[in-house]
Amino acid sequence: MSAPAGKPTTGDFVKTEGWLDWYDGPSRPTFVLPEGAVDAHCHVFGPGGEFPYAPERKYTPCDASKEQLFALRDHLGFSRNVIVQATCHGADNSAMVDAVRSSQGRAKGVATVRPGVSQQELDELDAAGVRGVRFNFVKRLVDVLPMDGLKQVAEQIAPMGWHIVIYFEAAELEELADFFLGLPVPLVVDHMGRPDVTKDPHGPEFERFLDLMRAKDDIWCKVTCPERLTDSGPLALDGEQNAYQDVVPFARRVVEEFPHRVLWGTDWPHPNLKSHMPDDGLLVDWIPHIAPTAEQQQALLVDNPTRLYWPEDQ
Ligand code: 0GY
């Protein structure tokens, strides 16, 4: 079988069929990001020839290097990145750590670690600029991990001032909420807990998610990934550049109720997209639809991520 065309996957890897490559001609956003803006959710993939993909991965991406990430950062007008370990690298954090180390202080990291991780490994990650770990409960992405092992990791990282990024499907929240609320560290929820945006943003499912946010004042939310959550698609039917309209009311509810606990990121290079690949410039132009005021934008893009990831700057 020949490898699908498009962007390369280096090393001894074949890119997953049907998986779209990231888009390398992003427009320059018309929305001008405030000084010090942080892209608080993005990844690097490999390059596979240098940082091999993990044997337990559920997909094989095209490469997306740190240089390409930093070029996107500069093109869009961000100052900094938070680089989240992608599942295709399993618990081998080398590619992410290499990117953070190469950023000259302009990136922090979120790692994946396994239960039983040594304190020495955690200390090395901390020295490199890692500030949290990600617990992923999305079954298509990872094998299920034992909850008591995760709890043990949480207790290990608590004295380090780290947090836990949690990723789950909305339908799983009811079952997971007590576990989340028992974790002894701040939590950061990926992509608003993946709401079904065909449902009512004021309906019981999204209220359950907002109730999680209300339960503790150190739970944060990334109001991210409209391209992943949308049902209506990238462009409004009337042709206006108001893309992903169906996701807007969900994100606005979170921004309005928790202005000081929201974060935003591109999710570049957008793993696992099959319907369309977003133009990252247009994604940035989506921000004023979910955070219309200058105060909300400053909190979302600068103050909140700086408080969480660069507290030394405060
Ligand atoms: C995201 C979302 C996804 C994938 C990953 O690490 C990953 O593989 O995070 C997804 O497939 O929903 O945050 O990038």
Describe the structure.
This protein is an alpha/beta fold and 314 residues long. It has a single domain, classed as TIM Barrel, CATH 3.20.20. The protein is 32% helix and 11% strand. It contains ten helices and eight strands. It has helices spanning 66-76, 94-101, 119-128, 147-157, 173-181, 204-215, 226-229, 248-257, 280-290, 294-309, and strands at residues 38-42, 80-84, 107-111, 130-136, 163-167, 187-189, 219-222, 262-263. It has an eight-stranded parallel sheet, sandwiched between helices. Strand 3, helix 3 (119-128) and strand 4 form a beta-alpha-beta unit. Helix 5 (173-181) packs parallel to helix 6. It is globular and about 45 Å long. The termini are far apart. The model has no long low-confidence stretch (mean pLDDT 94). The structure holds (1E,3Z)-4-hydroxybuta-1,3-diene-1,2,4-tricarboxylic acid (0GY). Residues 86-88, 141, 190, 228, 267, 271-272 line the site of (1E,3Z)-4-hydroxybuta-1,3-diene-1,2,4-tricarboxylic acid (0GY).
Please mark out the parts with pLDDT under 50 across 5 or more consecutive residues, or reply none. Answer: none
List the secondary-structure elements in sequence, H or E. Answer: EHEHEHEHEHEHEHHEHH
Indicate the proportion of strand residues: 5-15%
- Structural category: alpha/beta
The chain-level mean pLDDT equals 94
Count of alpha/pi helices = 10
Q: State the CATH architecture.
A: Alpha-Beta Barrel
Q: Mind summarizing the main beta sheet?
A: 8 strands, parallel
Whole-number count of domains: 1
**Ligands and ions found:** (1E,3Z)-4-hydroxybuta-1,3-diene-1,2,4-tricarboxylic acid
Radius of gyration: 18 Å
CATH superfamily label: Metal-dependent hydrolases
Whole-Å distance between the termini?
54 Å
Instruction: Tell me the helix content.
Output: 25-40%
